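Forwarding the complex inputs:
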Amino acid sequence: MNHEIRIFTEAQIRAAVALDLETVNVTEEAFTALAAGTVIMPPILSMELAEAHGEVDVKTAYLAGRESFALKVSTGFYNNAALGISSLNGLMILFSARTGLVEAVMLDNGFLTDLRTAAAGAVAARALAPQNVETACVFGTGLQARMQIEAAHLVRPFSKVLVWGRDRKKAEACAADIAKAINVEARAESDPAKAVEAAQLVITTTPAREPILKAGWLHPGLHITAMGSDMALKQELEAEVLTAADLYVCDRVSQCEALGELRPARAKGLMSGITPPELGQVLNGTHAGRTSETEITVCDLTGTGAQDTVIATHVNGILENSGTVIRA
Amino acid sequence: MNHEIRIFTEAQIRAAVALDLETVNVTEEAFTALAAGTVIMPPILSMELAEAHGEVDVKTAYLAGRESFALKVSTGFYNNAALGISSLNGLMILFSARTGLVEAVMLDNGFLTDLRTAAAGAVAARALAPQNVETACVFGTGLQARMQIEAAHLVRPFSKVLVWGRDRKKAEACAADIAKAINVEARAESDPAKAVEAAQLVITTTPAREPILKAGWLHPGLHITAMGSDMALKQELEAEVLTAADLYVCDRVSQCEALGELRPARAKGLMSGITPPELGQVLNGTHAGRTSETEITVCDLTGTGAQDTVIATHVNGILENSGTVIRA
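Prediction (whole assembly, two chains):
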């Protein structure tokens, strides 16, 4: 079937969208649609290439009424650093939801995944964090540590940031980047307990396989977003964090119990028989969110195909007539 | 990560590969690799868009030692005919198995799927059909009916073809196309039992949800390849066909028991406790194939990601320096 397909490059996509409130609002639509029950979202396809220390994840979702749906392939190849190549790559493909024809190929090398992941953190912070956040804390020192803080700052304009990471030098570099990017006071903090103690908003962005945030550190008026765990074996929060919090919210329960913090909690016999609310239910008011400044809330983000579809259709709408047109 | 990605169109791909013995041999490599246990092949991702009468399937596989792996998205949107568009579309993406970077995007609109599916039929016929096939029979009147017969003819040069389909006119058109394509005597046969009776090789290519080929029709010296069933609910062979045959072979057992003819057979209590051999085991001699001209053999093809990887890497090798180069 000879038809027009648009090819967009990472540079074109980066010129079209940024980590701003518009992107946060677009990303929020994914969660409200999930809560409305109008999303078809199959389980994630995963393949591990142990030889190359690589993994491949495929996500997709159809949001009822939309003209297009995206399918996203994320690759993570952890020997790439030695080759001077980013570990995370991939692309998104936009299909017509009416005919199944390919409409656009977004050669974003994972940029849109980074963007919609950070934007989801802002959606969670806006919905659940205390109104007054003076100090934010981030665990992890990679790209998402920077982007999550930048995104959260859009909705909670904190003035101080503490960065904890296993590598002090990397934490300092991350803090310096954050200070520069959003004009806040940012520094590395070697003691994770102290970092949490000082913060009203904590975001965990690590690939930890053992809990790095303990339940004993929780304090009134705290919101935690855990976005590092996106596969079985990963865990950032001590399981008791989920039960000690006043409210624990999933992006998607079926994903959090397979890939997120709910998996190790259930394995430990906690949260059994409990179906946590989803972020979209808090957003649309069908489940209460934070009810006071002193509550403790936790949001578990594993990343959904619905986010991919909303960001890809958004970008496609902006780029519309640009890109390379291929007739195929 | 700025790197070169090649975009190939359906026309370029069609000019590069055809349904010939080379394609059959390339496809065979998928099955021998599966049997060697050197393939990583996750379960298929499927999404149904009931509103649009559409479905999306994603397959992928990594064959150890290969530099690239493919990920294939197939779309089937069954209202397309009314729009004058083919129902089946999709694309393949080739990734580096070392870095995860996208190497090529094959905008084939499903052509390579058609090709490797038909080629697998030839692999099965070459491995399992009687040496002397005078008459072949095909159930179904669509593109795969034509292609499967054309592919099988490469390995078993039969002189007669019988076509059975629910729609007599379509069966006649299909027979006429086949007669012209491979220069054989071909005609429609309204009675499926008679069609099977006259044939030494039967290929079923329909989306049937009730058995269309009965166990009572089996006769000595018959090979059946059932390739229509690729999702739960579909079934072409009466369950007893599997047990009545001397040999029942799967392309991949885990897929056939979820999506192929093994699913309804097991549901009926047949084949319980039996793990059938896979086609690759027959090919590499670790499981006996047909041992006489009079045996009855059955091969169940659901379509594997391994086939997608071998055909995509083959095409990429041929097209190498052509296509549109995008730096992204």
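The radius of gyration of chain B is 19 Å.
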